[in-house]
Write a structure and sequence with these properties.
With 708 residues, the chain is α/β, with parallel strands linked by helices. It has 26 helices and 26 strands.
Length: 708
């Protein structure tokens, strides 16, 4: 059901085979011509790297840094309008200049790619088996179709698809996101390529599925011996997986070296900022994160000199004179593009010496015990079942989807509750039931002392003033036709704020969330993703609410921007006395911001308690697996951790398992005797105390275990 992986031996840096580089890129430039009078976009500027057989190279950087464009150039997949110069050599053969027919012969056989979104990478009208067979036969036209089909089934088994012979005939939409990504990997390795380029292969996946995919990639590398180029924004993934890494900014490399050198002997301020922005799972300290101020520059209008200088805390006037080249620092191939890198190396500066640590949010003047504070949200036995219907004209009910099945928790004044779990566990449905203020199918929801479903229109209007929401995607929640001033002013107008006070209040709110009030006359699309999220927070705070519901508020942001938003939320909570219901899939973020954590699985809460207790000593096997799957941005720690890799995907909420719903994937259940398994099969466990600190878990054999 599960396997515990310990990264040692061949997984350590330096395990790559020696020999001539398989893929070499030198002085690569990619420019996209501007439309009309718009200037050209210099997406890639002088990228160069090489990768050998059996080696894994990690490429990291913020969105728009040129990571994906450089890989698409290597695959020959850029549009004809792109101007590409430099050199891309595969086994010494120049790829630039080859026509599409020649490149098609190499794509999939000698160099292959795993894309970020597997659903768009698979054809929806063909079975997954047919698509793998096609990938095999296009490069082996003489291979009989039955042999290609047998090879496709072997590949599906290799990447961990259960019942591969049967699923061979399934269509992509019948697979989960993790299983579709496994199919993409199967296609990528079908012809034993020499190079596999992975473009953010785990970005859209839950941490448990991410852990599975990373193990599949390692198995694929062992099977093919290929070199891997891993493009990602997740510095934890890079720490535990790659041998060398390349950090990109504004279209060019700014630091290159062995993974240990880049993490432990960082010499580029930008890399220091990225590492300082990451919420850490392995620390008990609740210090503010260190964000990188500002936003990446436009690739069509780069600043003079070093592109990072406008955001760099140690920039000098000399930084504006010219763009620095990569300089070798300390030998062994470690290079950094910073004129102050030798000084950083000589003085041994760390991120704390370069970036000023933000002030921590002030603690409450008098810390009142949780049980003595007012309860702002009380949820008891919440149920939301959806009928499963069949038929186009004459519909009939054929089952029930148990989306939320008896959820209960409470939030005290000034407290943050983190609600976590895999996609499909019922988190968003729980939020919608709370925010609707309607009578639930089962259970009760009490908001600020008022019960949902029993309020009249006036009372609902009053409650909505005190309960506001911040959505995951700020762009889709902000009207692109409205100025930012009107976006923030809309709830104020709805609730009758006098016109003479409107402008001052909007400017006050924008200033509160760290935006320039002078920019209120702009449209949302003129702001970056992090700034748009701040606009959403300003709108939510307009009516001085007491409870903010935050639905994945930082998941769509770069880690450098995410840190600033998290710090802002911490500061606002302390300053305004807010309570948060914080929904997230990133437990590192939850570890940093939450006071208590509720872990959901298949419509139910399986563990709840104080954040420090749950992260230090989780009692439910599912919580242990979630925490174990989160990578830590520390190469030595990550290589020596034992990871609990769950097998399979979340069961269908329309057909949950009997007894304990986690049983089919539970590592503890797999090791029990037949007699010990009986309660797990027959009886659904209730939340029971596992010790002090208001810590409960729904497991017949709950036992604390440190996994960080």
């Amino acid at each position: 059901m599960t396997e515990t992986i310990t990264r040692t031996g061949a997984d350590e840096p330096g395990a790559a085979e020696t020999g001539a580089p398989v893929l070499e890129i030198e002085d690569l430039h990619v420019t996209f011509p501007g439309r009309g009078k718009s200037p050209d976009v210099r997406a890639v500027r002088g990228v160069g790297y090489s990768v050998r057989r059996g080696e894994i190279l990690g490429i990291v950087g913020e969105s728009g840094s040129g990571k994906s464009v450089s890989s698409m150039a290597a695959m020959g997949l850029l549009p004809d309008s792109a101007r590409i110069t430099g050199s891309i050599r595969l086994h010494g053969e120049e790829l630039l200049g080859l026509d599409d027919k020649a490149m098609s012969a190499k794509r999939g056989s000698r160099i292959s790619m795993v894309f970020q979104d597997p659903l768009s990478g698979l054809t929806p009208v063909y079975t997954v088996g047919d698509q793998i067979v096609e990938a095999i036969r296009v490069h082996n036209p003489k291979m009989p179709k039955d042999k290609a089909a047998a090879r496709a089934v072997e590949l599906l088994e290799l990447v961990g698809i259960p019942n591969a012979a049967h699923r061979f005939k399934s269509f992509p939409h019948e697979f989960s996101g993790g299983m579709r990504q496994r199919v993409m990997i199967a296609i990528a390795i079908a012809n034993d390529p020499d190079v596999i380029i992975c473009d953010e292969p785990t970005t859209a996946l839950d941490v448990t599925i991410q852990a599975q995919i990373l193990e599949v990639l390692k198995a694929a590398q062992r099977e093919t011996g290929a070199a891997i180029v891993m493009i990602t924004h997740d510095l934890g993934v890079v720490a535990g997986l790659v041998d060398r890494m390349l950090v990109m900014y504004a279209g060019r490399p700014v630091e290159v070296g062995a993974v240990d050198d880049v993490y432990y002997r960082t010499r580029m301020p930008y890399t220091m900022g990225l590492l300082g922005s990451v919420p850490r799972l392995d620390t008990d300290e609740r210090a503010p994160l260190v964000p990188i101020r500002g936003n990446p520059p436009s690739l069509s209008d780069l600043p003079p000199g070093c592109p990072f200088a406008p955001r760099c805390p140690i920039a000098t006037a000399e930084c504006d004179q010219g763009e620095p080249e990569l300089l070798e620092i300390g030998g062994q191939g470690h290079t950094a593009a910073c004129i102050r890198a030798p000084e950083i190396d000589r003085e041994g500066w760390t991120a704390a010496d370069v970036y000023p640590v933000p002030e921590a949010a002030p603690p409450p003047e008098a810390q009142v015990r949780r049980e003595d504070r007012e309860t702002v949200l009380q949820v008891d036995g919440l149920v939301k079942h959806h009928p499963l219907m069949k038929g186009a004209v004459f519909k009939r009910r054929v089952g029930t989807v148990y989306a939320v099945d008896g959820v209960g928790f409470d939030i005290a004044e000034g407290e943050t509750l983190g609600l976590v779990g895999e996609s499909g566990c019922g988190k968003s449905t729980t939020l919608m039931e709370i925010l609707s203020l309607e009578r639930p199918q089962g259970g009760t929801v009490d908001l600020l002392g008022r019960r949902s479903g029993t309020m009249n229109a006036r009372e609902r209007f009053a409650v909505r003033r005190d309960v506001q929401v911040v959505f995951q995607d700020p762009m889709s929640s902000l009207d692109p036709r409205m100025l930012v001033f009107d976006v923030v002013a809309e709830p104020l107008r709805t609730h009758g704020l006098p016109k003479d006070r409107l402008r001052a209040r909007v400017h006050e709110l924008l200033d509160l969330v760290g935006l320039d009030p002078a920019h209120a006359g702009r449209y949302p699309q003129e702001f970056s993703g992090g700034q748009r999220q701040r606009i959403g927070i300003a709108r939510a705070l307009a009516l001085e609410p007491r409870l903010l519901v935050l639905d994945e508020p930082v998941s769509a942001l770069d880690v450098s921007i995410q840190a600033g938003v998290i710090n802002l939320l911490d500061e606002l909570k302390a300053r305004l006395g807010l309570s948060y219901l914080f929904v997230a899939h990133d437990l590192s973020v939850v570890r940093h911001i939450a006071d208590r954590v509720a872990v959901m699985y298949l419509g139910r809460i399986v563990e709840i308690g104080a954040v420090d207790r749950i992260f230090r000593d989780p009692a439910h096997p599912y919580t242990q697996a979630l925490l174990s799957a989160i990578p830590i941005p520390d190469p030595e720690k990550e290589r020596n951790r034992s990871h609990i890799v769950l097998q399979g995907d979340l069961p269908s909420p329309a057909d949950p398992p009997s007894g304990c719903r986690f049983r089919p994937r539970c590592p503890k259940f797999a090791g029990l005797s037949e007699a010990e398994r009986t309660p797990c099969i027959e009886v659904s466990p209730d939340l029971e105390a596992t010790g002090g600190d208001d810590h409960t878990a729904a497991c017949h054999y709950a036992q604390g275990r440190s996994v960080v």
